[in-house]
Every structure is written in structure tokens, then in C-alpha cells.
């Protein structure tokens, strides 16, 4: 999972569309008439992420922040799906859960949740990254009987075939790369079973995140490759909540996340100004 | 469905002994045919003292850990334990936190069935002045301050649970002489650490725990810095027969210029002695006939030491001010018990030292108990720090497993190290500072510590803080 990749069909022609959409407010208007030609893919983003394929799985490599990010993302997803007392904990708490990882990148989150027993499908628009993910999941002997299955496709395409299907949809560091956010949310929700949960993490669109995410992480610390995020495409908890609630979901949690680059550590905070994590449940029709 | 699930389980953590990969790779290490590979474990605990056994027991009982395959290596033979009427001279003071750990491991019931003595009052005073501090369980905690338990009673209680049929994942080898550790640097290609035994057996594991005491060989293999010093002091222990029968739930400690002396209650007529002093003095006292040793003991508890009149004037001045504010002035002291005799042959001496390992962890290796830290026994904290290590280690490791991470993931290991050092190091340094502060009889130092003790005694919140840190 990753900050990177996102969904989709490869269509070069849409890049002008991205530009018009950009800010969330317009999204709502445009998206009412979704047509087959629409896509959530932003080609330029997909290419950027593909170029990163090389060092994807090196925990100290260019994606190291994404690796350490798992230390809070995985518990967030796990605890949103199962709650039990200390003594009832099991090795495979997610063993009966079917989960879709949208924008799975090289599979960092997919493998993390598969290790907890979940049956995971990972999709990404980047062919290279999907190849990396497929290859990497054969390395870990703990995944021998429960490898995630990876596909190069978009969520709008995938949800056509797998609707009302998943116990959970995870979109971690994806929505900020997506061209059509409403179509994206709509498709994610479509793939969910009623009662299923969606987990989203993404940078907030705030002055703070503009400075930190773009200046510091791309230019100063070289945490993520330059140009990975475009500030204009960032969204806010309010916008995401709005889109989710319009699509028959109830938002249950919004938490702030803090990242400390020097020590490469992530932590929950009360302020969602930098990055936020959101959990919502799909209501019965 | 069921079948696939159990296969998955198998694959998750429990590495089969017959793991072909580790067998073949092991051959690379052995150029000597006498070596026999005895198995690959998830966790090997080196050292089955109180702390190592408690960890093994926790790994057998806690839900997420009982899937790990664990090997406990203990150097001494497996002794049959029988509770004798006479008390052992090695005892520890267990705090509430240790008690709650032992309760959660179902060990405490066995301690209660054998024997223990609660401590409900504590009085600590200075031989060079009137300064005194007293703790009473009823006004500070709702529970007892601590419990005096013999080392072998506690160890046996842990072993009863450890060897019970409810624990299936822990193998124990007694009389285990480790001759070397080959530590792996971690990573996916590694086959873990190799432990070589004196008789040619070898074992391998992913996670190695050093619970092998102050002279830890695991710590040595890690190559970490170890700060240590000797106090040039010995601790003399003995079992005391008191002159009068009382409820005897008070722990007494007096700071003499030569080192602290403490009586820890065992039952209505017996107490256990821990008396620190210089090496030369200890040798003399060990050689005294028992009656003369008893005289020396009573002297140490009762004798008036030369006083500085300045210090006396200051403490009584502070006392009068405290009284004016209705605070305890330390004047209501209780009198310590007199010793009638010592249980014959119960006298023994141990060297005292300070030790601090600058790192508690290395890739796939962690230290617990005296292997990581050693303190002066004056505050009775030694083994409690070790049990605190066990508590934190099992909680961080369980969390890590529940998150799907490997048992050697650096994240939990770093957390363990920083959390424990944050607790242990200040405690060790405070105990060390106390032992130095009270090791002097220079009037300015005596004055400072006397006023400090008096004030601490008067101020309830500070006392509460001390008690809760020690707990
Ligand atoms: C005089 C004195 C008084 C004390 N009083 C108190 C007190 O009142 N309260 C208190 O809390 N603490 C007290 N302590 C400290 C307490 O005894 C220790 O903190 C405690 O024993 C530490 O337990 P441990 O399991 O970490 O180490 P140890 O008890 O040292 O156990 C280490 C174990 O490892 C085994 N071992 C070592 N090397 C190897 C090897 N290579 N292979 C296999 N096995 C090996 C040993 O056989 C031993 O069983 C006192 C200590 C002294 C000396």
C-alpha cells in the first residue's frame, strides 16, 4: 500500500479531466452521471509510482515510511473489524474476512492483513507494482496458504464484477492520487457488503500538510519520490465524509496521524490536520 | 475448511523441528561430527532463575504466546523441592506489580499455600541523626506494601505451573551448559541464532532471551557495553529468631555509616537479615561465633552512633516546624525488634554490585532480569525490576504478534528496551545514590539526607509517589 498507486484503466486522454476536477467541491457536480469513459486513474501518478518499483520492499529503502506505517495502519484495520478482550486474541483475527486493498502498490498493506488471516485481493493501476506484489508474496512462508491475489485493474472496473462482496475495503494513501474522487468512493462502496467497512488514510488538505507533505517529505527528507503527491488533489475529512454519506455509508471514526521522519515513526494524534484515517460502515439499503 | 485453517496455524509461528532448511543450513556451521542438531525453536530462554522461569511460564499461558515453541535452558540440575520447616536465608520482597503478574500466571496461589509474609509497615531511619521515614500500607495503598517470599518457594511455585499439563509449548533442559552463541543478524535468509551446548548438542531459534543473571553470557555474545562497579561491599544474609513474638509485619531498615541493615519479616518470631557492609567487615562478621554475631546485630540496630550537634539541632528545628503545620515530624518512632539468636548455619555473604547494560536488545535478542540490570539490594527492588521486564516483554511481544509481525520485529524490541530502561535506570541510579549518600558520615551530607528524609516523610504525596514507583 502505498501512497502511490491508484486505480485504473490506462487512458492517457484523461489528464485534462484531472485538472478540472482537482478540488473536491466540483467533484460532487461532475460525478452524478458516471459513464464508462470515466476513470479514477491519473496516469501521471501511476507512472511515477511505477518508477519506484525497484526499492519497494526494502524496509530501509525509498518506501521505508510506508513499511513503518503498517505499525499503525494494520491495527487500525484489525480493530475496526474485530474487537475482543486480551485473552480472546488469536493469531489470525481476520481469518474469516474478505478484504479488498485498493491501490495496493507493491503489497505492503495486503501482506500485512493477509498475515492476520484475511483473504485479500489487491488491485492497482500500475502493472509493475502488481508484478512486484505478486512476486514478493511468495517470499514469506507465513503467507504460503493465504497469499493475496493481485490484479492490475481499477476499482470501478473491479466493483462491476465484485459488488456487495467484501467485508472491508482498504484505501490507504490512494485517494489523494485519484482523478475522480466520487467515482472512486462510489466504486469502493459498491464492492462492500452492507455492514462492511471502508478504511481510508490520506493526507489532509491544510496549510500544515501542504508544507510538511510536499516540502519536507518530498524535498527535504526524500521520504517519497518527488512529485508523488500533488497538493491540489489532497482532500479533507469533511469532503470524504460527504462523499461517503452520499453513498450510503456512515462515518464512524476520524483520527489524526502524525509522522516523525527522523525516527521513522507514526503515531495517532487528536489533530487530523496532517494525515487522517477514517473508518465508515456501509448501511443496509 | 477446518483442515486448511489448522495448516495455516501451523505455518504461522510454530516452526516444525524437522524444518529441512534449518537442518541443511546447520550443516554449514558444523564441521565437527559430534555436534547434534536438536531442534529449531521460536524462542530460547537462556537461564531458568526466577525471572527466566516466569517468562517461560507466561509464554506457556498467554493466549498469543502459547503458539510459540519455547525452550528453557537452565544450568543447574532439576532439584526436587520440599518445603522444609526452617526458612531459607535467600528471600525477596515482592511488590504489588509482581504479585499481579504472579496472579495472572496462577503462581501466587502456590506461594500462598506454601508461605509468605505480608509487609504492612516499613520504617527506615538514619543511625547518624533522628531522621526517619515510615510507610504504612493502610494510609498509602489499600493493600500490603510488599511480601517477603523465599527465593526457592517462589521458584518452585512458578515451576509447578510451568510443568503442569496446561503448558504444552515449553521444553526444559536442566544441567544445560551453554558453550557458545552464534547470533544471526536477522533478515529473511537467516536461520536464526545457534546455541551450542557443552555435550555437542545445538539448538537454533529466532528469538533468544538472556535471563542468565548478572554474568550473562548472552549479553557478552551481544557485545553490548556493560557499565558495572562493585561496591566493595558484601551482603550478609541470615535467618533471625526474634526475642519476642509479635505480628511482625514491619520491615526495618537502618542506615549505618558502613551500609544499610534490614530485617524482613518471615513470621511472628522470625525475620530475614540483609546487611550490607565492607568486604573486610563481612569477613570478620562471618567468622564470629553465632552468639557474638547476634550481639553485633543488636548493636547495629540499636547502638547510638556519634552525632553531630549541628545536625541534631537542625532536625529538631525542622521537626518543630513540621509539627506546627500538623505534619508528621518523625518523632513517633517504633522500636525495632531484638534478635535472640540466628538459625544455625544460615549465615552467608554475597558480593554487591551495580550493573547496567546500555542495550537490552540486539536483532532477535533481548535481556531480562539481572542480565540487564543489577542493583544494590537495599531497596529490595532487584527481582521486581526483572519481573517488570517480563510483564512488558510479554505485552509488547503479544501486541506485535497480534499485528501480524515477526517475533523478532525491531519495533516491539525497541519499545521494550526504551520502556524498561525508562523505568529501571532511574530506580537503579536512585538506589545507587542512596547507598552512596548513606555510606558517608560527613556532617553536611548527614544533614542533607536527614532533612530530606524528614521532609519526605512529612509530605504524603511524595511518599505515595515513591511507593507507586517501587510498586
Ligand atoms: C544478597 C542479596 C540480596 C538480595 N535481596 C533482594 C531482595 O530483597 N529483593 C529483590 O527483589 N531482589 C534481591 N536480590 C536480587 C535478586 O536475587 C535478583 O535480582 C534475582 O535473583 C535475579 O533473577 P534472575 O532470574 O534475573 O537471575 P539469577 O537469579 O541470577 O538466575 C540466572 C539463572 O541462569 C542460570 N544460568 C546462568 N548462566 C547460564 C548458562 N550459561 N547456561 C544455562 N543457565 C545459566 C543460572 O543457573 C540461574 O538459574 C538480592 C540479591 C543479593 C545478592
UniProtKB/TrEMBL annotation, chain A:
Keywords, ordered alphabetically: Magnesium, Membrane, Metal-binding, Methyltransferase, Mitochondrion, Mitochondrion inner membrane, S-adenosyl-L-methionine, Transferase, Ubiquinone biosynthesis
Protein name (record): Ubiquinone biosynthesis O-methyltransferase, mitochondrial
Top-level taxonomy: Eukaryota, Metazoa, Ecdysozoa, Arthropoda, Hexapoda
Described function: O-methyltransferase required for two non-consecutive steps during ubiquinone biosynthesis. Catalyzes the 2 O-methylation of 3,4-dihydroxy-5-(all-trans-polyprenyl)benzoic acid into 4-hydroxy-3-methoxy-5-(all-trans-polyprenyl)benzoic acid. Also catalyzes the last step of ubiquinone biosynthesis by mediating methylation of 3-demethylubiquinone into ubiquinone. Also able to mediate the methylation of 3-demethylubiquinol into ubiquinol.
Name of a matching Pfam family: Methyltransf_11
Family: Belongs to the class I-like SAM-binding methyltransferase superfamily. UbiG/COQ3 family.
Stretches assigned to the Methyltransferase type domain: 100-200
Organism: Vanessa tameamea (Kamehameha butterfly)
Top-level EC class: transferase
Record gene name: LOC113400884
Chain positions recorded as S-adenosyl-L-methionine binding sites: 73, 103, 124, 172
Cofactor(s) required for function per UniProt: Mg(2+)
Subunit structure: Component of a multi-subunit COQ enzyme complex.
Entry annotated with the keyword Zinc: no
Pathway: Cofactor biosynthesis; ubiquinone biosynthesis
TrEMBL record, chain B:
SUPFAM superfamilies referenced in this protein's UniProt entry, alphabetically: FAD/NAD(P)-binding domain (SSF51905)
EC number(s) from the headed UniProt entry: 1.14.15.45, 1.14.15.46
Membrane topology designation: Peripheral membrane protein
Compartments, as annotated in UniProt: Mitochondrion inner membrane
Top-level taxon in the UniProt lineage: Eukaryota
Reactions catalysed according to its record: a 4-hydroxy-3-(all-trans-polyprenyl)benzoate + 2 reduced [2Fe-2S]-[ferredoxin] + O2 + 2 H(+) = a 3,4-dihydroxy-5-(all-trans-polyprenyl)benzoate + 2 oxidized [2Fe-2S]-[ferredoxin] + H2O; a 2-methoxy-6-(all-trans-polyprenyl)phenol + 2 reduced [2Fe-2S]-[ferredoxin] + O2 + 2 H(+) = a 2-methoxy-6-(all-trans-polyprenyl)benzene-1,4-diol + 2 oxidized [2Fe-2S]-[ferredoxin] + H2O
GO MF annotation terms: monooxygenase activity
Keywords in alphabetical order: FAD, Flavoprotein, Membrane, Mitochondrion, Mitochondrion inner membrane, Monooxygenase, Oxidoreductase, Ubiquinone, Ubiquinone biosynthesis
Requisite cofactors: FAD
Function: FAD-dependent monooxygenase required for two non-consecutive steps during ubiquinone biosynthesis. Required for the C5-ring hydroxylation during ubiquinone biosynthesis by catalyzing the hydroxylation of 4-hydroxy-3-(all-trans-polyprenyl)benzoic acid to 3,4-dihydroxy-5-(all-trans-polyprenyl)benzoic acid. Also acts downstream of coq4, for the C1-hydroxylation during ubiquinone biosynthesis by catalyzing the hydroxylation of 2-methoxy-6-(all-trans-polyprenyl)phenol to 2-methoxy-6-(all-trans-polyprenyl)benzene-1,4-diol.
Family to which the UniProt record says this protein belongs: Belongs to the UbiH/COQ6 family.
Protein name: Ubiquinone biosynthesis monooxygenase COQ6, mitochondrial
Gene that encodes it: LOC113399311
Amino acid at each position: 500500500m502505498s501512497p502511490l498507486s491508484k486505480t485504473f484503466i490506462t487512458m492517457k486522454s484523461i489528464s485534462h479531466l484531472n485538472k478540472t476536477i482537482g478540488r473536491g467541491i466540483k467533484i460532487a457536480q461532475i460525478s452524478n452521471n458516471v459513464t464508462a469513459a470515466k476513470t479514477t486513474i491519473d496516469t501521471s501518478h501511476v507512472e511515477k509510482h511505477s518508477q519506484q518499483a525497484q526499492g519497494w520492499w526494502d524496509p530501509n529503502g525509498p518506501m521505508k515510511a510506508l513499511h513503518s506505517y503498517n505499525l499503525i495502519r494494520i491495527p487500525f484495520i484489525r480493530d475496526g473489524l474485530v474487537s475482543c478482550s486480551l485473552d480472546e486474541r488469536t493469531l489470525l483475527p481476520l481469518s474469516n474476512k474478505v478484504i479488498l486493498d485498493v491501490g495496493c502498490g507493491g503489497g505492503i498493506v495486503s501482506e500485512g492483513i493477509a498475515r492476520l488471516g484475511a483473504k485479500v485481493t489487491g488491485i492497482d493501476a500500475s502493472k509493475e507494482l502488481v508484478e512486484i506484489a505478486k512476486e514478493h508474496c511468495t517470499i514469506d512462508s507465513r503467507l504460503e496458504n493465504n497469499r493475496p491475489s493481485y490484479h492490475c485493474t481499477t476499482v470501478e472496473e473491479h466493483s462491476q464484477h465484485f459488488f456487495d462482496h467484501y467485508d472491508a475495503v482498504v484505501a490507504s494513501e490512494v485517494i489523494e492520487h485519484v482523478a475522480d474522487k466520487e467515482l472512486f468512493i462510489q466504486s469502493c462502496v459498491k464492492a462492500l457488503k452492507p455492514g462492511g467497512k471502508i478504511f481510508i488514510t490520506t493526507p489532509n488538505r491544510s496549510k500544515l500538510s501542504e508544507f510538511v507533505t510536499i516540502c519536507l517529505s518530498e524535498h527535504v527528507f526524500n521520504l517519497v519520490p518527488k512529485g508523488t503527491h500533488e497538493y491540489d488533489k489532497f482532500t479533507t475529512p469533511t469532503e470524504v465524509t460527504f462523499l461517503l454519506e452520499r453513498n450510503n455509508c456512515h462515518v464512524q471514526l476520524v483520527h489524526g496521524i502524525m509522522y516523525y521522519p527522523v525516527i521513522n515513526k507514526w503515531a495517532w494524534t487528536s489533530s487530523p490536520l496532517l494525515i487522517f484515517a477514517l473508518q465508515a460502515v456501509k448501511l443496509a439499503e | 475448511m477446518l483442515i486448511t485453517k489448522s495448516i495455516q496455524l501451523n505455518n504461522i509461528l510454530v516452526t516444525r523441528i524437522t524444518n529441512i532448511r534449518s537442518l541443511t543450513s546447520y550443516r554449514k556451521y558444523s564441521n565437527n561430527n559430534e555436534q547434534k542438531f536438536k531442534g529449531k525453536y521460536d524462542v530460547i530462554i537462556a537461564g531458568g532463575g526466577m525471572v527466566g522461569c516466569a517468562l517461560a511460564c507466561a509464554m506457556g499461558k498467554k493466549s498469543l504466546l502459547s503458539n510459540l515453541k519455547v525452550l528453557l535452558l537452565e544450568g543447574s540440575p532439576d532439584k526436587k523441592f520440599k518445603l522444609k520447616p526452617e526458612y531459607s536465608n535467600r528471600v525477596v520482597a515482592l511488590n504489588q506489580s509482581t504479585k499481579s503478574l504472579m496472579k495472572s500466571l496462577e503462581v501466587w496461589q502456590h506461594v500462598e499455600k506454601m508461605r509468605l509474609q505480608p509487609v504492612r509497615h516499613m520504617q527506615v531511619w538514619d543511625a547518624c541523626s533522628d531522621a526517619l521515614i515510615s510507610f504504612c500500607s493502610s494510609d498509602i495503598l489499600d493493600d500490603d506494601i510488599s511480601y517477603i517470599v523465599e527465593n526457592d518457594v517462589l521458584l518452585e511455585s512458578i515451576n509447578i505451573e510451568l510443568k503442569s499439563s496446561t503448558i504444552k509449548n515449553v521444553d526444559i533442559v536442566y544441567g544445560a551448559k551453554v558453550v557458545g552463541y552464534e547470533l544471526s543478524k536477522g533478515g529473511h535468509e537467516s536461520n536464526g541464532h545457534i546455541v551450542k551446548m557443552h555435550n555437542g548438542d545445538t539448538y537454533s531459534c529466532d528469538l533468544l532471551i538472556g535471563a542468565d543473571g548478572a554474568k550473562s553470557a548472552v549479553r557478552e555474545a551481544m557485545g553490548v557495553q556493560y557499565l558495572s562497579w562493585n561496591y566493595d561491599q558484601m551482603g550478609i544474609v541470615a535467618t533471625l529468631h526474634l526475642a519476642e513474638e509479635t505480628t511482625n509485619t514491619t520491615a526495618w531498615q537502618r542506615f549505618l555509616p558502613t551500609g544499610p541493615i534490614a530485617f524482613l519479616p518471615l513470621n511472628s518470631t522470625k525475620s530475614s537479615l540483609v546487611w550490607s557492609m565492607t568486604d573486610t567487615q563481612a569477613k570478620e562478621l562471618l567468622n564470629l561465633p553465632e552468639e557474638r554475631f547476634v550481639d553485633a546485630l543488636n548493636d547495629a540496630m540499636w547502638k547510638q552512633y556519634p552525632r553531630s550537634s549541628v545536625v541534631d539541632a537542625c532536625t529538631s528545628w525542622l521537626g518543630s516546624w513540621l509539627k506546627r503545620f500538623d505534619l508528621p515530624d518523625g518523632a513517633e518512632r517504633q522500636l525495632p525488634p531484638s534478635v535472640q539468636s540466628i538459625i544455625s548455619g544460615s549465615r552467608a555473604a554475597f558480593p554487591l554490585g551495580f550493573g547496567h547494560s546500555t542495550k537490552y536488545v540486539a536483532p532477535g535478542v533481548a535481556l531480562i532480569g539481572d542480565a540487564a540490570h543489577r542493583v544494590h539490594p537495599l531497596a529490595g527492588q532487584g527481582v521486581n525490576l526483572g519481573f517488570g521486564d517480563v510483564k512488558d516483554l510479554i505485552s509488547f511481544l503479544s501486541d506485535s504478534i497480534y499485528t501480524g509481525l515477526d517475533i523478532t520485529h525491531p519495533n516491539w524490541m525497541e519499545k521494550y528496551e526504551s520502556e524498561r530502561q525508562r523505568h529501571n535506570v532511574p530506580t537503579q541510579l536512585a538506589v545507587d545514590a542512596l547507598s552512596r549518600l548513606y555510606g558517608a558520615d560527613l556532617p553536611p551530607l548527614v544533614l542533607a539526607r536527614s532533612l530530606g528524609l524528614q521532609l519526605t516523610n512529612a509530605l504524603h504525596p511524595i511518599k505515595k509517589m515513591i511507593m507507586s514507583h517501587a510498586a
